[in-house]
Design a protein that fits this description.
Elements lengths: L2 H39 L18 E2 L2 E2 L6 E7 L4 H19 L4 E7 L5 H14 L4 H10 L11 H10 L4 H9 L4 H13 L7 E4 L2 E2 L5 H13 L2
Helix pairs in contact: 2-8, 3-4, 3-5, 3-6
Length: 231
């Protein structure tokens, strides 16, 4: 065999080895991805945290807490997977409710901006279906109580259904609503409204239609007081 033929044969064998190696790498990566998504969809449901008790002394009308005639409207655009939204819910929202909503100065409305990923949408659908049974805020609270990270199975369909059962929903009715993605058009309209108003992340807070530069209690409280004074 000539030297040229020998080199050609070596190159051919090297190409074959590379092809086999690439196939093995791709197959291994595919198996890892498949195992990851299998784990996410089968994340245990027996480890769900309880939602804190919410005993509102004022009216709750679907996704709004407070007197509908209160002069100040606070809108909170949130994503259930957002860590900063969890902080807002745990640290700042209770103070806003206590000092402004329960006193009749303001009303607080939850708005949807599910932008982080697929589980942002599943959680939004689940909460809207809970709202059909008058338990939006209970479901809102259990979602945040079980926030584990972004798109890692915390809000898989199995876990969302278990949350519905945990807060005492009619699970069959909830599931029919959830499986049908009944509120997709509503979620799309919420996203469109948020983007039209300049929302780029969560939480984004509006007070009487004005976007705030910060979501901390001091900023929101000051804006509420200014808005109330201007009425």
């Amino acid at each position: 065999m000539s030297t040229r033929s020998t080199r050609a044969e070596r190159r051919r064998k090297e190409r074959q080895r590379k092809q086999i190696r690439n196939i093995l790498i791709f197959s291994g990566a595919a198996l890892v991805v498949a195992a990851f998504f299998l784990f996410m969809s089968n994340r245990p449901v027996d480890d769900l945290a309880d939602a804190p008790a919410r005993n509102s002394p004022v009216a709750i009308n679907e996704m709004t807490i407070g007197n509908p005639d209160a002069p100040v409207l606070v809108e909170a655009f949130e994503d259930f997977q957002c860590p900063s939204c969890l902080r807002f819910t745990e640290d700042f929202e209770p103070l806003i409710l206590q000092n402004y909503v329960y006193t009749g100065v303001a009303r607080l409305t939850f708005r949807y901006y599910p932008f982080i990923g697929a589980e942002s949408f599943t959680a939004s659908h689940a909460a809207l279906c809970a709202n059909e049974q008058g338990k939006f805020w209970e479901y809102h609270d259990i979602l945040f109580a079980n926030q584990l990270g972004e798109n890692i199975g915390a809000y898989s369909s199995r876990r969302l259904e278990a949350m519905a059962d945990k807060i005492g929903l009619d699970v069959d009715s909830w599931k029919a609503c959830y499986d049908a993605e009944k509120y997709q058009a509503f979620i799309d309209s919420e996203l469109a409204d948020a983007r039209n108003r300049g929302v780029q992340g969560t939480p984004t807070i509006f007070v009487n239609g004005q976007m705030l530069p910060s979501y901390d209690y001091q900023s929101v409280g000051f804006a509420i007081e200014q808005a109330a004074t201007n009425q």
